[in-house]
Structure formats: structure tokens, C-alpha cells
Write a structure and sequence with these properties.
5 strands; alpha+beta; SNARE binding; Four Helix Bundle (Hemerythrin (Met), subunit A); Severin; zinc ion binding; 5-stranded mixed β-sheet
Length: 239
């Protein structure tokens, strides 16, 4: 595993160095490297590979999950492959009014703006969704207000909220719950793959293994399984 990670890192560095030397005429390593738009995304994709469950060197990843990830990386079509290594990250507690509704013009579900994959975006009172086509993680901050927990997941408070895998979210007759369920139904029906994404409710101060698995999808953080603490002020631990 370490050899594979080192190989990906070395090859990416060499490709960018050769591009700078042969195309841009950069002769000194200290010079700033400016990549074309297409190539500038390549290091990000490799970073996504390194943080995927197939190449992540964390000891907390179960061998079955690692094997499954390796198979998916070899077999998924391009669109699903990109979503797997570069997930989508949405803020749920403060999403725009139209998010989660159906656009009358095209009949598709409207999603909130995508956030950067960084723990700086996580606020302790917020709720977020991270999805990669295979799994949907609903992150609930440790200071989420009782009304949000009740309206969204049917729990009186975040302390009484159960974390872990579930087939569907509770069908609560509140606007935020209905909008979130609309987005999840859209994700499950629109993906051009046969896999049915699983839902995981993740509490900030809940199961450490599930928490680490969720945070490992935040590619812009330095730690392979996310920072020790996740909140609004993560400038010291994020890339």
C-alpha cells in the first residue's frame, strides 16, 4: 500500500515538473508552477485517490471496505468514478429556500451550492451532507439545536439522536426534512449506476470510526481521516 501511494505521488510530481520544464520553460524548482486548467485538476484527482478507502493507509479502514473501493475504482463509469474520489459537500441547515425543491423548468431537484471539501466549513451547530455516489453521510454537529434535530431527524436533541446506517431518513412533515429527502431520492434515482447509496447519520461526538470515515472525504484536510476536531476554525489543520 505504501509503495502504491509513493508511486502515485512520485508520478504526479514528475508529470507536473516535466510540464513546467518542457511546456512553460521553467528551469528552477523554486519557480512557481502554473498549470493549464485541464492539468491543474490532475493533482486534485490523485489526492482524491490517495484519500480513498483503497489507498488510504489508515488502520481503521476494514479490509472489506478497502477491497470494495479498489473494485469500484477499476469498474465504475467516468461520472461515478469522479464522484467517488471527489465527493459533493452540502450545507443543509442553512441551504437556500429553493434547495430541495423541484425545478419546474426541467423537473430536476435543486441542490444547495457545493462547499469546499474542508473541515473549516463544518460548524458545530450545523448539519451537512457528504455524498460520493456510494454513500450519503448526514453530519450533525455536537451543538445542533433541538429544533433542527427534531425537524430533520425526529430526535428531541442531538444527545438522543442515533447515529449509524439507515435505509431511509424519517419522513417528517417539515420543510427541511422534505427537502433533504427530495435530494436523497434524486441522488438515488439519477445516478447512472446500479448501486443504491447507503445513508449514514454521523454525530460529531459519536462513533469515532464512523466519524473518521466521514471526515476522510474532506480532501483539503491534511489528516487522512480528518482533523481531531471539526468546527468553524480549522485553519491550523486544513490544507
Amino acid at each position: 500500500l505504501r509503495d502504491a501511494r509513493d508511486y502515485l505521488t512520485k508520478q504526479t510530481t514528475e508529470m507536473c515538473t516535466v510540464y513546467g520544464k518542457e511546456v512553460l520553460g521553467i528551469q528552477t524548482p523554486q519557480s512557481q508552477l502554473t498549470l493549464c486548467r485541464e492539468l491543474s485538476l490532475f493533482p486534485l484527482l490523485v489526492l482524491g485517490l490517495l484519500k480513498s478507502e483503497a489507498f488510504n493507509d489508515s488502520a481503521t479502514i476494514h479490509p472489506d471496505l478497502r477491497a470494495q473501493s479498489a473494485i469500484l475504482l477499476r469498474t465504475l463509469p467516468t461520472d461515478a468514478w469522479l464522484s467517488l474520489i471527489h465527493p459533493n459537500f452540502y450545507s443543509i441547515h442553512n441551504m437556500p429556500q429553493l434547495a430541495g425543491t423541484i425545478d419546474e423548468k426541467n423537473g430536476k431537484c435543486v441542490f444547495p451550492p457545493r462547499a469546499n471539501l474542508c473541515s473549516e466549513k463544518l460548524e458545530s451547530h450545523g448539519c451537512y451532507m457528504i455524498e460520493n455516489g456510494q454513500n450519503i453521510f448526514i453530519w450533525v454537529g455536537k451543538q445542533a439545536v433541538p429544533q433542527l434535530c427534531k425537524d430533520l431527524l425526529g430526535a428531541p436533541s442531538v444527545q438522543e439522536l442515533k447515529s449509524g446506517q439507515m435505509a431511509i431518513l424519517p419522513g417528517i412533515k417539515t420543510p427541511i426534512s422534505e427537502r433533504l429527502n427530495n435530494m436523497i431520492r434524486n441522488l438515488r434515482s439519477e445516478r447512472q449506476v446500479t448501486y443504491y447509496p447507503s445513508i449514514y447519520v454521523v454525530k460529531e461526538d459519536g462513533d469515532p470510526a464512523l466519524r473518521a470515515r466521514c471526515l476522510s472525504h474532506l480532501l483539503e484536510d491534511r489528516q487522512p481521516t480528518g482533523p481531531t476536531t471539526a468546527g468553524a476554525n480549522q485553519s491550523t489543520v486544513s490544507s
